[in-house]
Amino acid sequence: MLKNSVHLWLKKSLEDPIVKILTKNSHLTKTQLETLLIDVLAENIAGKPLKYDEKARLRLTKAKISRGAFNRTLRQAQGNVIKAIYTVLLLGYLGIFESTVLDQYIEISNKLQEYIEAHKSLSKKADQSGEQIKFLKMLREELESSLRTLSNPSEGLS
Q1: The whole model's pTM is what?
Q2: How is residue 125 annotated by DSSP?
Q3: At residue 80, what are phi and psi to the nearest 5 degrees?
Q4: Which of these, 23, 64, 97, 106, is most buried using a 10 Å CB contact count?
């Protein structure tokens, strides 16, 4: 039961078009992201602490993953996340954020937050109007387009 719930949640998350674009342009591989998601969020779904061999069995792969392989992938993912955070800290320290170079990334970050809030709000409502669903779809498509544009090095930091 737990494995099915986690797999359904992982597939839904990893197949999300925005997650795909963000993952493609991040320092995380799909496997590292999957492993990180399992490590961080699977216990919430399980409602109890999980051992690493249990977490390893939650991966989407059909092949059996050892606890050691799971932990190795997890360490790689965590290292990549830490490096990304340090990159952001470095850019802030050097004053890059104070220039207009990153304005388009800040705008997309705000749009992502707006999308998340709209999605949460719509999920809580029993009566979902066509207008709300249409707005959410339009916002998602706009985000996807903007993310694709920003992931192009010639369009990005310029």
Answers
A1: 0.82
A2: -
A3: -65, -40
A4: 23
